[in-house]
Write a structure and sequence with these properties.
The chain is built from 13 helices and twelve strands. With about 325 residues, the chain is an alpha+beta fold.
């Protein structure tokens, strides 16, 4: 591991002052420490922001603000989230171990990097780790790789469970840029596809700081589900996940949200399937058709064709489970 300096910021202004391009922020450290040990991240310095940012969950009539330093465990026990935003809790409980959830921060969860094996194997080319070196997964062992939204620059997938629920609920990311000016980014635009800059995971401005996540209040707290399919039942990243939330009047679907993980470089919303569901009478047949609409344009790679029927089943199951709540 490369030696680095370590400084602790007292507040957000001091954190921004200390942050330069050769220094990284550290909060829970559940991902950055792995990257340091494997020499993937090699900063000259680390800026500890654990006491510089909010640890509060603040509900209001129109939304809830979740502070950047709220631990993932708190997301699963907070009474306001359990009552009005249970899809968030459901997704977080599907991810990581209790020990990691006790350390991991909300903002850090948004910034965690892909678990593509070639990204962590520094002996192989990886455009995400080293610009212009190539994508080993494209024609390699790509069983865990993307099936939608990828290109020949990168086929890695986004790893977070929390982000799938925040995507489905149309959250907004709030922060401060390097000049200490406020900004906000709709969650659908926060993470990015590989395009011609696969080393960038998101559209966060350089040296900026996430301060909190805002989730609008909605009617999706009554009927929701999160389905995660993985190689073992705990502490594994999703092969496929599906978050669903339905707003219903009787048996008629007034509005629908559908998002997936394990399929793309970013949390993926199935907008066409959502539109199809609106105004329909809830039934297994309708949910099956929605899953077919969602999967008809996906393009699996050589070793991950299994993800297509798995995704179709996960979406169907998530919709069925949500409609029964």
């Amino acid at each position: 591991m490369k030696p680095f300096t370590f400084e602790k910021a007292k507040n957000s202004a001091e954190a921004l002052k200390l942050k330069i391009s050769t220094r990284d922020f550290v909060a829970g450290g559940t991902n950055i420490i792995d990257l340091l040990k494997k020499n993937i991240a090699q900063p000259d310095g680390m800026v500890d922001i654990t006491t510089a940012l909010s640890t509060e969950i603040k509900p209001s009539e129109k939304s809830v603000n979740i502070g950047a330093m709220v631990r993932n465990t708190a997301l699963t026990t907070n009474s306001d989230l359990l009552k009005d935003y249970p899809l968030i809790t459901k997704a977080v409980l599907a991810g990581a171990s209790p020990q990691i959830r006790n350390m991991a921060s909300t903002a850090g969860n948004l910034l965690q990097r892909t678990r593509c094996p070639y990204f962590y194997d520094v002996t192989t080319p990886c455009n995400k780790r080293k610009k212009g070196s190539g994508c080993s997964a494209l024609n390699g062992d790509n069983k865990m790789s993307a099936i939608v939204g990828y290109n020949d620059q990168c086929v890695a997938v986004h790893p977070s469970d929390l982000c799938i629920s925040l995507s489905a609920l149309d959250a907004t990311v709030h922060g401060l840029n390097a000049k200490n000016e406020k900004f906000m980014i709709p969650f659908k635009d926060f993470h990015k596809l590989p395009e011609n800059t696969p080393w960038l995971d998101n559209n966060l401005p350089q040296n900026a700081l996430i301060t909190h996540i805002e989730v609008p209040k909605n009617e999706f707290h009554k009927k929701y589900a999160y389905v995660k399919l993985r190689e073992r039942t705990s502490y594994a990243f999703a092969m496929i996940s599906a978050a669903s939330a339905l707003q219903m009047e009787g048996n008629i679907i007034k509005d629908a949200r559908l998002a997936s993980g394990g399929v793309a470089h970013k949390p993926w919303r199935w907008y066409e399937a959502e539109d199809y569901l609106k105004g329909k009478k809830a039934s297994e047949e309708i949910f099956k058709k929605a899953s077919e609409i969602a999967t008809e344009k996906v393009k699996p790679l050589a070793h991950n064709g299994y993800k297509v029927p798995m995704l179709k089943g996960a979406i169907e199951l998530a919709l069925q489970n949500a409609s029964k709540l």
